[in-house]
Amino acid sequence: MAISLNESETGDKGEVFRDVHFPDPAHLFVTPDHYVFRMLHSQGISLESLGVPRVDGGDVETDARAIWRRFAENYHLLRGTPSRIWLDHSFETVFGWSSVLSADTADDAYDHISGCLLQDDYRPRALFERFNIELLSTTESPLDDLRWHKEIRQSGWNGRVVTAYRPDPVVDPEYEGFTENVGRFGELTGEDTTTWQGYLAAHRLRRRYFMEFGATSTDHGYPTARTESFPQAEASALFDKALAGRCTADEADAFRGQMLTEMARMSQDDGLVMQIHPGSVRNHSADVYARFGRDKGFDIPRRTDFVQALTPLLNAVGNDPNLTIILYAG
């Protein structure tokens, strides 16, 4: 079995990589899972009451049992969803608890699962072996120091956990702090990322660094599937504009599209598989984004033109047998 975890789906990666006990049922199943709390929030349940941290450090529920009871009282809202199927399976197959979760059974479920989580058999690495996981892949930003991957190597554990290169913070002019991110990118790599060529060189270096920690792929999540293949002088001018914060929305999309083609060119050289999953308008709720930050389940699919949008990239590098691209539709 192979499993892939996105940054927004892993909660505290340190729990897995340090092999510490999971804290409690609420902070395992509810608070870090935007699929779960988004459904509950859609029915009027506040994110604060589910313990989701606020970006301003404001008050949220900290009593894990209270969070769990609120979750259990509204568990029926998840009926028919993939989350409900996964949760029911986890409760029964992993934890041996087979009753239907509800307000009446909330405390019984909490106590049973909590008791399991205190056992060494329920620590992350034991579960890794129990589930017969051959490979666990995480995604990290180029600005990540990959410290958890380093800790795994130093621990001597034999479980295979690899990273994937997710460059969004330094390729998307509309990502918060883009200019500062590119500056940090230069500091990490020793390249002059205020120049187009230095910026591209920094990507090559960082990709190689990720490959040292097992990376076999890159991961790109964009609102559209647009790609571009501008002459390098034109691409450089667009980069300068992005770095100065002067891009229009269309120019920001064009820059993202150019960087998909540049990433494909780099994959020709280093062999990393490209994963492209476009077509989602992320962080759609301005209010939730302002109060709780990104990746809180407010993503909405949009119409995506794959044929025309991918043409520049495919015309540039699409016939190279050494390039592999996985395109996710929807």
SSE arrangement:
Elements: E1 2-5, H1 13-17, H2 25-29, H3 34-42, H4 64-73, H5 82-94, H6 106-117, H7 124-130, E2 135-140, H8 147-155, E3 161-165, H9 168-171, H10 178-189, H11 196-212, E4 217-220, H12 232-243, H13 249-270, E5 273-276, E6 280-281, H14 286-292, E7 300-301, H15 306-317, E8 325-327
Parallel strand pairs: 1-2, 2-3, 4-5, 5-8
Antiparallel strand pairs: 6-7
Helix pairs in contact: 10-11, 12-13, 13-15
Summarize the structure.
This protein is mostly helical and 330 residues long.
Label this structure with key terms.
330 residues, mainly alpha, uronate isomerase, domain 2, chain A, TIM Barrel, 2 domains, 3-stranded parallel sheet, 15 helices
Give a written overview of the molecule:
- The chain has 330 residues and is mainly α.
- It has two domains: 21-122, Orthogonal Bundle (uronate isomerase, domain 2, chain A), CATH 1.10.2020.10; 164-327, Metal-dependent hydrolases (TIM Barrel), CATH 3.20.20.140.
- The protein contains 15 helices and eight strands.
- The chain has helices at residues 13-17, 25-29, 34-42, 64-73, 82-94, 106-117, 124-130, 147-155, 168-171, 178-189, 196-212, 232-243, 249-270, 286-292, 306-317; strands at 2-5, 135-140, 161-165, 217-220, 273-276, 280-281, 300-301, 325-327.
- The strands form three sheets. The chain has a three-stranded parallel beta sheet with strand order 1-2-3. Strands 4-5-8 form a three-stranded parallel beta sheet, with helices on one face. Strands 6-7 form a two-stranded antiparallel ribbon.
- Helix 8 (147-155) links the parallel strand 2 and strand 3.
- Helix 10 (178-189) crosses helix 11 (196-212) and helix 13 (249-270) packs across helix 15 (306-317).
- The protein is globular and about 65 Å long.
- It starts with a strand and ends with a strand.
- Mean pLDDT is 92; it is low at 7-11.
